[in-house]
Amino acid sequence: MAKDRDEILVVGEVVEVFPSATFKIQIDEKHHVIAVPAGRLRQSNIRIVAGDMVRVALSPYDLTRGRITWRVNGSRAPR
Question: Any idea where the S1-like domain is (predicted)?
Fold first, then answer.
């Protein structure tokens, strides 16, 4: 699978958890994104709960939906 070079990476906080592994992410004070975990997170059984900081990959075509690519630990920031 080819890597998307057009994706926009942002860091936000999970504010709400919906059924079927869908999350509402707050990017800044005004902007929210609906995101799902990437396949690697699902395969590794990484748990994401409200209050977690996550890195989200957004498509430039739809900035309201994204893919969670990384859960940020307190001491380990995403690159």
Answer: 1-73
